[in-house]
Write a structure and sequence with these properties.
Helices cover 29% and strands 26% of the residues. By secondary structure, it is an alpha/beta fold. It folds into two domains: 7-81, no CATH class; 101-224, UbiD C-terminal domain-like (3-Layer(aba) Sandwich), CATH 3.40.1670. It has a five-stranded mixed β-sheet with strand order 5-6-7-9-8. 19% of the residues are buried.
Length: 262
């Protein structure tokens, strides 16, 4: 039976095409697999059914050396490469590393697409590895309790099953990539008595050192959105904003400071 490209690969090709503004060039290997045209190296092999071998310990993205786990075995049948290939590698360790940013396309984008398809109110997802196993979602709120439902859906996405241990849901006017804004929302909009949901014994990445047993962990959803009807908790009046000329004065003060340092 001929092998077919994985959905993960198709998403990468689509994203690459969008970024370069034209279709992404692919070629087929001898086994009929689609691979990027001009790839530095291509490794083709077979996943051996029901075979596992111990791997590790390695330094991993949570910032700890992994334990030794039994992982699937792949036998490599063919290695090909372009002329004068460059061997690429990345450093993996305690965030932040280059891997944490390179993974953004395969973490933030797929989760956003899944959530936004089902809940158009979702406007942004921060699932950068710089925050480890934390996912931050910005959304409009349809009705009271809506944010908690979004958080539960994150946990059931393909990525969320293994990598989303803590989900923080914020209002649409909060930039999920600005941790200063996220922390402000958590500090004033979260009432631990009613805005935290802990779901016990869910699947987790084996590399998470807090798993007990390994690969199983309690997960938490933090609702840091403003309550709306019928949820009428709290006393949220009119929210303060920066004065209109704040940015202008910040630039002026920055220029003065820079000038005094010369």
């Amino acid at each position: 039976m001929a092998a077919t490209p994985m959905l993960y690969d198709q998403l990468e090709y689509k994203m690459a095409a969008v970024m370069q503004g034209k279709p992404y060039r692919v070629v087929k290997t001898a086994k009929g697999l689609d691979v990027p045209w001009g790839a530095e190296y291509v490794l083709e092999g077979r996943l051996l059914s029901r075979q596992r071998e111990p791997e590790g310990p390695f330094g991993e993205f949570p910032g700890y050396y992994s334990g030794v786990h039994n992982y699937p075995v792949i036998e490599i049948d063919r290695i090909s490469h372009r002329k004068d290939p460059i061997y690429d590698s990345v450093y993996v360790g305690r965030p932040w590393t280059e891997l944490d940013y390179l993974q953004a396309m395969t973490t933030c984008v797929p989760i956003f697409m899944q959530l936004n398809t089902e809940f158009p109110e979702v406007i942004a997802v921060n699932a950068l590895y710089t925050h480890g196993l934390v996912v931050i979602v910005a959304t409009h709120t349809r009705y009271g309790g809506f944010a908690k439902s979004i958080g539960l859906r994150v946990l059931t996405t393909t990525h969320g099953l293994g990598y989303a241990k803590i989900v923080i849901v914020v209002d649409a006017d909060i930039d999920p990539f600005d941790l200063n804004e996220v922390m402000w929302a958590m500090s004033v909009k979260v009432n631990p008595a009613s805005d935290l949901i802990v779901v016990p014994n869910l699947p987790d990445n084996l590399l998470d050192p807090s798993g007990q047993p390994s690969g199983i962990v309690h997960k938490m959803i933090i609702d840091a959105t403003t309550p709306i009807a019928p949820d009428i908790r709290g006393d949220f009046g009119e929210e303060l904003d920066q004065p209109p000329t704040t940015a202008e004065w910040r630039d002026k003060l920055g220029a003065l400071i820079k000038g005094s340092q010369k």
